[in-house]
Design a protein that fits this description.
The chain has helices spanning 46-60, 77-81, 106-120, 124-136, 155-166, 173-179, 256-273; strands at residues 20-25, 30-33, 41-42, 142-143, 151-153, 189-191, 195-197, 207-208, 226-230, 234-239, 244-250. It has 276 residues and is an alpha+beta fold.
Amino acid sequence: MFPAMDDLSSWTSAWPVGWASLGVTDADTSLGSGPDPDGPVRIASISKTMVGVAALVALEEESITLDEPAGPEGSTVRHLLAHASGLGFGDDRQVSPVGKRRVYSNVGIEKFCDHLADRTGIPFDQYLREAVFEPLGLASTELRGSPAHDVYSTISDLLVYARELLRPTLIAPETLAMATRPHFPELAGMLPGITSFDPNPFGLTFEIRDHKQPHWTAPSNSPYTFGHFGGSGSYLWVDPEAGLAAVSIADTDFGAWSLDVWPEANQRILETYGRQ
């Protein structure tokens, strides 16, 4: 049995931030949550995973294929979504040959979104809203800039989104499973703000925990855990083995404090809410 619904505000009270909110869910319902802020806040690179879900909807609709050309010469949709196109972090420079290194790239995600808009004839912000936000009832979630890092949301909406990643309804479970396994699994590269890993597994926009250490998830999170953290002090992870997902937002950008407190909080989540 799960513990009674908890207000997780006390769990973040010692974090060195102005405010933070934490939530945890299984596939059926929210198990515990801190309060929402007064309005949506920027979730930074968690946004990329929402781009990933939109891409999977388009894949099932046959608007795109993963191996069609997109981005720089020799690159495909798969390369762009898996940070394997060789494009730099914030500009069009080719900093690595296609498929040779995991180069984390906001530009690569943006180029995919432009590609999807060209293929569907629908502006990407509209596609994301109609394919993901509206069907899930994410009324407080909106794209306000770059799809790579400018979605704004709340703890309540993120918990709904996390449940979708535990038990998908917009796409087939097999499609999500494909997207959350490593693509180009041998590639090494930097996990921004943490360190370099060899290999550095990513799925299609989703970071995969594997055996990375140090890491922002818990020591006990399974290697199959997938998700993303955001530079705005946010994170979302889904652990299929534990049957749990957790989300957090804060008013303080990601930094050393995050790696000090997030793994401990995530370990507590697994110990409190994990399958008994």
